[in-house]
Structures are given as C-alpha cells and as structure tokens.
Design goal:
This protein is of the alpha+beta class. The chain has one helix at 47-61; strands spanning 3-7, 14-18, 23-25, 32-34, 40-44. The structure holds zinc ion.
Length: 66
Amino acid sequence: MLYVVVNCPRCGGLMLAKTVHRTRSCPHCGYRAELRGLRVLGRADSPREAVALIQALKERSTGKKR
Ligand SMILES: [Zn+2]
C-alpha cells in the first residue's frame, strides 16, 4: 500500500491519503479534494513511514529559521 501526503487546496493543511483512493476528505476543514489535482509532498510505503513524513513536513512548514 502506498500513501501520499498532500496539501489541502482549501485550508492548506497536510493530509495523508492512500493512493488507491481518488478523493480524500480533509481532516482539518472537511473539504473533499481530488487527489489527482494535488501536489504530492511526499510518499510512503507504510502508515508509520507516512506519519513520520507528515511530522517532518510539519516541522519544516512551521517556520524554523533557516
Ligand atoms: Zn482542509
């Protein structure tokens, strides 16, 4: 099973989706996004890997000083 991490087009929040699904409801705002149109931020092969990936992306986006 493959997972992708994408940005919600409505609220910009990170969400995890299985690639077998065509759409995914955003856990933050409830928007139902079509996965094909979204930019994939990362991919993972296991749920654990996917969670770690989301954590890493969150840390990156919450404004650490460069
Ligand atoms: Zn959202």
